[in-house]
Fold this sequence. Notes:
By secondary structure, the chain is mainly alpha-helical. It has one domain (10-58). 49% of the residues lie in helices and 0% in strands. The chain contains three helices and no strands. It has helices at residues 13-19, 23-31, 40-52. The chain is globular and about 30 Å long. The mean pLDDT is 87. It comes from Mesocestoides corti (Flatworm).
Amino acid sequence: MDDFLRGVSPQLRSYRLLVNLSEKTRYKADRSGCTPETPYEELKERLVKIFSKNADNYL
């Protein structure tokens, strides 16, 4: 994902990351408090914690 967002300004990375998630994944992230205003590095950590437990359910 970092390679995909390399050309995106740091202020837009969280937004672009969330927009490019699948609908089911985006819903789960939203319900877990992830927002476009969340700093990118923090957002990545949150998403890993949320989805690493049940990764097969979100593929």
